[in-house]
């Protein structure tokens, strides 16, 4: 049974759990996330979903977060519905990240919404300021494994980002992108 069917079947139970989630302290949910981060069984997936519902700026329904996913700066993360973020993903919403509905993000993908500057020459680059810049992933997008989505880009609706791609510029709708840096491979 897929995630959507499970949600339909157990919507009543999920409703009760989400009501309890509202009164659960954030520290308890953080602890449970850490405790279950190595599993993709139903209960750990539910715990991670509850964590996102409580901590993200906004969070829709049916969110799958695989094992060993790292998500930072949740207060600047907007999630639609029917999203899957697969194992070993890394998302840092420091500059703001919006992910629309029906988005699949494959394993080992990184999404960062800031970049380091290097203008201050008297200090090492790693200590220079960072520049936030929002990432927007619109509806119906498939991001292949091992991709790097860099700050300031918009991936428009119904696009595919091929495995291993580095996205450093905005992506039009209805295309397959590939390469380093990415470029249009095919219209769909």
From TrEMBL:
InterPro entries documented for this protein: Hexapep, Hexapeptide_acetyltransf, Trimer_LpxA-like_sf
GO-annotated molecular function: acyltransferase activity
Keyword Transferase (UniProt): yes
Keywords recorded for this protein, A-Z: Acyltransferase, Transferase
PANTHER family attached to this UniProt entry: ACETYLTRANSFERASE C18B11.09C-RELATED (PTHR23416:SF23), SIALIC ACID SYNTHASE-RELATED (PTHR23416)
Family, as annotated: Belongs to the transferase hexapeptide repeat family.
Name recorded for this polypeptide: Acyltransferase
């Amino acid at each position: 049974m897929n995630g959507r069917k499970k949600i339909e079947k157990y919507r009543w139970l999920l409703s009760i759990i989400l009501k309890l989630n509202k009164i659960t302290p954030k520290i308890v949910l953080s602890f449970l996330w850490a405790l279950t981060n190595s599993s993709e069984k139903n209960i750990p997936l539910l715990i991670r979903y509850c964590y996102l519902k409580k901590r993200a700026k906004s969070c829709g329904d049916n969110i799958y977060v695989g094992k060993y996913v790292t998500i930072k700066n949740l207060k600047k993360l907007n999630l639609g519905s029917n999203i899957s973020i697969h194992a070993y993903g890394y998302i840092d919403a420091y500059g703001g990240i919006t992910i629309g509905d029906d988005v699949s993000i494959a394993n080992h993908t990184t999404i960062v919404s800031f970049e380091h500057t290097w203008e201050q020459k008297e200090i090492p680059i790693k200590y220079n300021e960072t520049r936030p810049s929002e990432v927007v992933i619109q509806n119906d997008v498939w991001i292949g494994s091992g991709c790097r989505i860099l700050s300031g880009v918009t991936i428009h609706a119904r696009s595919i980002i091929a495995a291993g791609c580095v996205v450093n510029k905005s992506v039009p709708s209805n295309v397959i992108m590939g390469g380093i840096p990415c470029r249009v491979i095919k219209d769909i």
